[in-house]
Amino acid sequence: MASAAPQHPPVRLTVLSGPSGVGKGTVVAEVRRRHPEVWVSVSATTRPPRPGEVDGVHYHFVSDAEFDRLIADDGLLEWAEYAGNRYGTPAAPVRERLAAGAPALLEIELQGARQVRARDTDAQLVFLAPPSWGELVSRLAGRGSEPAAVQERRLAIAQAELDAAGEFDVVVVNDDVVRAADELVGLLTAPSSGSLRSGGASE
Ligand SMILES: Nc1nc2c(ncn2[C@@H]2O[C@H](COP(=O)(O)OP(=O)(O)O)[C@@H](O)[C@H]2O)c(=O)[nH]1
Ligand SMILES: Nc1ncnc2c1ncn2[C@@H]1O[C@H](COP(=O)(O)OP(=O)(O)O)[C@@H](O)[C@H]1O
C-alpha cells in the first residue's frame, strides 16, 4: 500500500539573490507580468523609498525603531544589514503561503540567503549573475538611482557576492530579461520534497 498522501503538494521556498544592479527586480517583474499567481514576499527595510516606490508594494518602509520591534517580536524570517540599511523578510506571510501549498519567492541579499539555507534545507537558492563585471557596472550606473559613492559601496559588496555564487543551487545569468525570467519560472514550478520548518526567527 502507498503511504499517506501529504495534505497538499510539496512546495518550496525559492530565494533569488544577486548583486545590486544585476536585474533582480526587472526579472521578478517580468515573471509576475506573465505569471501574476507567483507570490513574492514584501520585505521591511529602513532604507528610504526611491522615487516611484510605494510603501507596502515595493517594501514596507519602516523606522529603525520599528525594525528593532520586528526583530524583538520574532517577526522576521531573516534579516541583514546591507550598505548601511537593514532589510528583513516578514515571517508570517511566507509561512501562510507555504502552509497553503503555494510557492513563495524571496528576493534578498547573500547574508539573508544563508540564513534561509540554515533554517530550511529544502529551500531553493538561485543566484542571478551578470553576463560580465562591466555589464553590472553599467547597469547599476544606468539605473541612476544612487549617487556615485553609494554605487561604489554596492559594487564593493557585489565582488563578495559574486565570489559566493557557488553556494547557490542554481546560477541564472541575466543576459536577457525574458530568457532569465523563463528560467526562473521553470525553477519556481520544479517539484520539491519538503517545506519550511516551523519555528521563530532567531538571528
Ligand atoms: N536579507 C535581506 N535582503 C533583502 C531583503 N529585501 C531586499 N534585500 C536585498 O537588499 C539589497 C538592497 O536592496 P535595494 O536597496 O532595494 O537595492 P537594489 O536591489 O539594488 O534595487 C538587495 O540585494 C536586495 O535583494 C530582505 O528582506 N532581506
Ligand atoms: N537583461 C538585462 N539587460 C539589460 N539591462 C537590464 C537587464 N536586466 C536589468 N537591466 C537594467 O539594469 C538596471 C538594474 O536592474 P534592477 O532590476 O533594478 O536590478 P536589481 O534589482 O538587481 O538591483 C535597470 O536599469 C534595468 O533596466
UniProtKB/TrEMBL annotation:
Compartments where found: Cytoplasm
Stored InterPro entries: GK/Ca_channel_bsu, Guanylate_kin-like_dom, Guanylate_kinase, Guanylate_kinase_CS, P-loop_NTPase
GO CC terms of this entry: cytosol
GO MF: ATP binding; GMP kinase activity
Main localisation: cytoplasm
Short name of any one Pfam family annotated for the protein: Guanylate_kin
Transmembrane segments: none
EC number: 2.7.4.8
Entry keywords, A to Z: ATP-binding, Cytoplasm, Kinase, Nucleotide-binding, Transferase
Residues reported to bind ATP: G18, P19, S20, G21, V22, G23, K24, G25
Residues covered by the Guanylate kinase-like domain: 11-189
Catalytic activity, reaction form: GMP + ATP = GDP + ADP
Alphabetized PANTHER family for the sequence: GUANYLATE KINASE, GUANYLATE KINASE-RELATED
Function: Essential for recycling GMP and indirectly, cGMP.
UniProt similarity note: Belongs to the guanylate kinase family.
Entry protein name: Guanylate kinase
